[in-house]
Amino acid sequence: MIEGTVIKSTGSWYNVLLDELTPEGDRELRCRVAGKFRLDDMNLTNPIAVGDRVTVEVDTNNDAETGAIRGIADRRNYVVRQSPRRKHDLHLIASNVDQAILITTIVDPSVKLGFIDRFLLMTEPFSIPTTIVVNKADLYGEEEMETYGVIRDIYADIGYRVLLVSATTGTGIAELRDLMTDKRSLLSGQSGVGKSTLVNAVEPGMELRTGELSDYTGKGQHTTTFAELYQLSFGGELIDTPGIKTLGFNYLKPQDVAHNFREIFALSEDCRFGGSCLHRNEPGCAVKESVEEGDDRVTDLRYYSYLQILEEVESQNYWERRKV
After folding, report:
1. Residue 211 clears pLDDT 50, i.e. is over it
2. Looking at the 3D structure of the chain, how many domains does it have?
3. Is there a cis peptide before residue 47, judged by omega within 30 degrees of 0?
C-alpha cells in the first residue's frame, strides 16, 4: 500500500501522485476505484476528487503498472456541483483546497454579477476563501473602471478579495503570484476571460486545457468535466476545472442559500424571525428593509441574485431533491 494525492480525473481512471516510488519505479500511477465510497450521504457521479489523499494498492501483474484506490483520507473541505447529466446527482470537483480564484472581466466578455454570486455560493458553504480576479484591465476606459469600482466595493465590503489584473500589460500579476504561492488554488472562470493566458503570465510555459464556464448559469462548452492538478514552480498547486456545465444547487435548501450570502446572514440577526427568515415577505425583515432604504448593507444587485437562486432551489421540490 502506498499513499498519494489524486492529480487528475478522467472518468473511471484517476492519476495519483505517489509519496514513494512503485516497485517498477513509477511516481505517478493510473488507478481505478476499489470498493464504494460516499460523501455525507450524497448521490455522487464520482466518488473521488482531484486533491484527495488516497491509499493505493499497486498491481504489477499487468503489462502496464496500475493501481487500485483502497481508501480515502478525511477531507478538510471539498467543492461539489450539480451533475450536468444527472440533475438529481452531484459531481465532486476538488478537495482539500486552500482557496478559490474566480477570473472574470468587465468587457470581452461582459461581467455577469449573477455568475459571480453563483460561484461564491459554491465555495462559501465549505468555508473556502475566494478571490475575484478581474482580468483585461488594459481594455478598460473610464466607464469600465467605474464598473470595476462598483464590483470591487460590493464584494470587498462583504469580505472577498478583489484584484485587478492584466495578462497583457502585467498589471497585478506579481500580486496574483504572491496570492497563489504555497497554496492549493481552485481556478475557474467564464469562457473568454483569458484564464489560460493569465495562468501563463503567472507561470510561463504552463498550458491549460480550453473550454471553460460560458455564462452566469454555468452552462459551458462541449469539453471534459474533469479537473486536473498542476504543480507551480514558485510553490503551491493549481487545480484547473474546465468544462463545468452547471452551477445549479440541488444539494442546498432555501435556508442554506440565506445562510451563505454573507451580508444577508449577518443582518438576519436583526430580523424578527432571526435565522429562519428567508427575507422576502416576512414582517420585520432587516434585510428587505436594508435593500428598500438603499443603505448598502445589502445591495440590490446581490439581493436580486439571492432571490433568483432561492426561487430555483424552491422549485426543486422535496422529492426531486432526494430522488435517487
Report:
1. no
2. 3
3. no
104 shares its domain with 222: yes
Q: Looking at residue 9, which CATH number applies to its domain?
A: 2.40.50.140
Digit-coded pLDDT (tens) for 3-38:
999 999 887 899 999 999 988 888 999 999 987 776
Position 315 scores a pLDDT of 86
Q: Which amino acid is at 185?
A: S
Cβ-count burial 148-175 (b if 16+ within 10 Å, e if not): beebbebbeebebbbbbbbbeeebbeee
Residue 277 burial (10 A CB sphere; 0-12, 13-18, 19+):
buried
Residues 21 and 125 in one domain: no
Closest of 220, 232, 217, 171 to residue 192, by C-alpha: 220
Residue 247 is assigned to a structural domain of this protein: no
Provide the CA 259 distance to its chain's centre, in angstroms: 18
pLDDT for residue 219:
43
Q: What domain range is 171 assigned to?
A: 95-240
What are 171-185's pLDDT values in tens digits? 999 999 999 999 999
User: Phi-psi bin for 210: left (phi > 0), alpha (psi -120 to 50), beta?
Assistant: beta
Cell of 269: 440577526
Q: Is the confidence at residue 151, as pLDDT, over 60?
A: yes
pTM, two decimals, is: 0.89
- Bridge partners (DSSP) listed for residue 1: none
Q: Does some domain include residue 186?
A: yes
Residue 213 has pLDDT above 60, yes or no: no
Picking from 175, 206, 240, the residue at the C-terminal end of a domain is 240
- Judged by DSSP in three states, 4 sits in strand
What interhelical angle do 113-123 and 142-156 show, nearest 10? 30
